[in-house]
Amino acid sequence: MESKVHRPRVVIVTVPCPGHIIPSTQLAKYLLSMSIDVCCYSTGINYPTVENQLEEKFGDVRIRFRPLITNSEFVSPGKELTDNVSWMQGPSDGEMAVRLEEIVRNLTPPPVCIISDLLAGWSQDVADKFRIPRHVLYTMPASALLFSFACFPSLISPQVAPEHPPGTWNSMVVTTHAFYDYMMRNARRLQEASFILVNTFEDLEGRFLDLMRSEVIGKPNVQKILSIGPLIRSSNIEMVSAHSKPSAREEHESFAEVMHWLDAREQSSVLYVSFGSLLTVTETQIHELAHGLEICGRPFLWVYRVPNTPQILPADASTEDSLSEGLPPGFLERIQGRGKLIRGWAPQEKILAHKSVGAFMSHCGWNSSLEALWSGKPLVAWPLAVEQRLTARYFADMQLAVEVRKNDDSIVESAEVVQAISLLMEEREETGIHSKFDRMQELAHMAVDDGGSSRSNLQVLIDSIKNQPNPLT
Ligand SMILES: O=c1ccn([C@@H]2O[C@H](COP(=O)(O)OP(=O)(O)O[C@H]3O[C@H](CO)[C@@H](O)[C@H](O)[C@H]3O)[C@@H](O)[C@H]2O)c(=O)[nH]1
Fold first, then answer.
1. How far is the CA of 22 from the centre of ligand 1 (A)?
2. Where are the alpha helices (DSSP H) in 193-238?
3. Residue among 235, 367, 371 to mutate when testing ligand 1 (max atoms within 8 A of CB)
4. Domains plus CATH for the chain?
5. Residues 6+ apart with CB under 8 A from 71
6. Which atom of ligand 1 is nearest to the CA of 141?
7. Other C-beta atoms lying within 10 Å of the C-beta of residue 452
8. Which of 33, 69, 231, 432 could form a disulfide with 23 if both were Cys (CB 3.0 to 4.6 A apart)?
9. pLDDT tens across 251-310, in order?
10. Residue among 368, 370, 393, 394 to mutate when testing ligand 1 (max atoms within 8 A of CB)
């Protein structure tokens, strides 16, 4: 057996959002399966209720992202969070870098590289200090990466960035200057990375990847942008063997109840509705959606988040009370027996794999979109923020989704909800979506299988890690 002493070690850094922790964890599991040690850290606020849901095991190894800063150090009386992203980024890039530097200095054996999230650009400074490569794990689609490069020539040749968010980007991304600044700061560090590992696959987004390889990087044959996805829980090749027993989460009563509810429904009859782990919609929008679900007459499973909670914050996995808050009066009674709402955290990857689920109404977060593809559940695309509109439009163009239309007040009305659902679930043959989707599902599986494009790219990463001399030893 290979001695542990000779195993190369990698430091992985991410931000404390499920949409980033989940793909980072899958990469960690893959590296472990390739006899590479991993040490995992996260920035910002540590939400134990969320993280308990996200902890995974590889054999005896628990994969958990340790916070670089404790909550009490970060937020205390007099040190409140000042904007809607600081919970994600931590106190400052410099502070995060100092803390990671300290860790790297004391690790034995030292890491041969840092793999860090697209939103942890500051970790490039730490990698430079120790003269080791930094690879970026890009958890959004390749279309968003191309969009960043195309919108901001300054990312390619580092000149001054525009002072104000340009219109398109601003309307897509969000809202505040703090968020814009955060995205820009991190995007600027992309070019310095050794590899940009994109959680996608060639058959889905090859056109964007190729454009970047030739137009942005200017060297189509240089391996810098590597597609390595779908990097999702269900695609993790090692997952099956590592999980011989159900996890505590799967044994949880509410998990079992959801699965029993689905078991009792007809094949492909259920619409699954979820807008990811971070975003909420307004009460007016909730009412339109609820009304639409009520009149469409189909079974549905809705992961419900109360409106007007802070707009961007991880779902509190412990919250299961006050299910009716924000819903139209009498809604729960009227949908009894046909619709089910879940508050808190849903076992999404298992729900999507269930045979009773026929379609997925989603905000088009990239992980959800990949999970839908993986499990063959076509999308009602309902983008909310960040890069999600790019995905919704692309999937609709590729005939992988039906995109909802918003009215002039940016509301999706109940009639539109009904129409989109019926187009996707009743007029299956006419839309052509299902056959396109089946083919893309097949290609997604092939990408990570032996000889697939993502698997080969992962091998490029593994080879580089294993051949990387360690300047610290
Ligand atoms: O109840 C829940 C809610 C979420 N999830 C999982 O959490 C992840 C959520 O990720 P994603 O679908 O990408 O949505 P967000 O949480 O909104 O992700 C953020 O991060 C993504 C990756 O960078 C971006 O694509 C999104 O726009 C951004 O909002 C997925 O794996 C879901 O399966 C669950 O398992 N249960």
1. 8
2. 202-211
3. 367
4. 4-236+449-467 (3.40.50.2000), 248-444 (3.40.50.2000)
5. 45, 46
6. 25
7. 18
8. 231
9. 555 788 899 999 999 999 999 999 988 888 889 999 999 999 999 999 999 999 888 665
10. 368
Sorted by sequence, the CB contacts under 8 Å of residue 38 that are 6+ apart come out as: 9, 10, 11, 12, 28, 31, 32, 63
Give the chain's end-to-end CA distance (angstroms, integer): 23
More confident residue, 429 or 34: 34
Whole-Å CA distances, 310 to 278, 302, 307, 411: 9, 20, 9, 19
H helices of 34-70, where?
48-54
Question: Which residues lie with the beta carbon below 6 Å from any ligand 1 atom?
Answer: 17-20, 22, 139-140, 274, 276-279, 303, 315, 345-346, 348-349, 365-368, 371, 386-388
Nearest-CA residue for atom 11 of ligand 1: 365
54 dihedral zone (left: phi>0; alpha: psi -120 to 50; beta): alpha
* Encoded tokens for 453: 């494009």
To which residue do tokens 């400074």 refer?
125
Q: Is the dihedral of CA 36, 44, 198, 55 positive or negative?
A: positive
Ligand 1 centroid – CA 279 distance (Å): 9
Question: pTM for the complete prediction?
Answer: 0.91
The length of the chain, given as a count of residues: 473
The pair of three-digit structure tokens given for residue 61, joined into one six-digit string: 């190894």
List the residue whose alpha carbon is closest to atom 28 of ligand 1.
365
Give dist(CA 40, CA 234) in Å, integer.
21
Q: State pLDDT tens for residues 377-392.
A: 999 999 988 889 999 9
3-state helix, strand, coil in the chain (%, to 5): 45, 15, 40
CB 160 within 8 A of CB 195: no
Atom of ligand 1 nearest to the CA of 391: 25
Alpha helices in 264-328 (DSSP H): 283-296
Burial class (CB in 10 A: 0-12, 13-18, 19+), 20: buried
If one counts every other C-beta atom within 10 angstroms of the C-beta of residue 457, the result is 22
**Atom of ligand 1 at shortest range from CA of 366:** 25
